[in-house]
Amino acid sequence: MLYLIIWSKLLFIDICVFWSCLSGGSRCLVLITVSLALICVLLLVFIILQHNTITAERDLIKSYKNTKKLELETRVNNLTKSCFSLKIFFWLGNLCGPVCYFISNELKSWSDSRQYCRDQGADLVIINTEEKQVSFERVWIGLSDIENEGNMTWVDNSAVNQEFWLEEEPNNAGGNEDCIELMPSETIKNWNDLPCSENRKGICEKYTVKNFL
């Protein structure tokens, strides 16, 4: 549009100069000089406006690319956090069914670890078989005597039917060891009591839909 406007003005100037030169000789040189000056000014304006337009478009494209890049990086970071916040620990059944076990990626207190599991639709693991006595690091399990000192219960309020305590445990050292962790061990006896405020990862246990069908 801008190009057409400038082109029409140049054409108008050329026509005016042409008719002026036909009617008068001395004025022709002056008109030609003035018209050339006007043409130069219009061309300069055109070049400046074109440059500004191209610059604005380039900046807009750059801004768009930066925005999309930031959005992509944000999505990747969120997906990465989601993937690593739940590290698969081991599986029972096909494709995490009927029960899935995963270990959190962050160190938290027993209560915070349990809340983390609950936020994922799970809870700290209840260990009632030897197969669940597998751990490569110190992690919280769903056992404590927080509600009733000396009476260990699972997070579902069930009693302990099978115990896997380390030797001389539980000892309630200091009088405040109310939560239970699973210790790395070559034997299946690897439970240890310690203060619930200690920071550990937690093993979460989640029942899938298959379990309720």
User: On the 0-100 scale, what is the average pLDDT?
Assistant: 76
CATH architecture classification name of the largest domain? Roll
Question: How would you name the CATH homologous superfamily of the largest domain?
Answer: Mannose-Binding Protein A, subunit A
Q: List low-confidence stretches.
A: 83-95
Q: Percentage of helical residues?
A: 40-55%
Radius of gyration: 39 Å
Distance between the termini: 69 Å
Q: What is the number of beta strands?
A: 8
Question: Could you name the CATH topology of the largest domain?
Answer: Mannose-Binding Protein A, Chain A
Bin the strand percentage: 15-25%
The biggest beta sheet is recorded as: 8 strands, mixed
Which series of helices and strands comes N to C?
HHEEHEEEEEE
Broad structural category = alpha+beta
CATH class designation of the largest domain: Alpha Beta
- Which of globular, elongated, flat, extended, rod-shaped describes the shape? rod-shaped
| Number of self-contained structural domains | 2
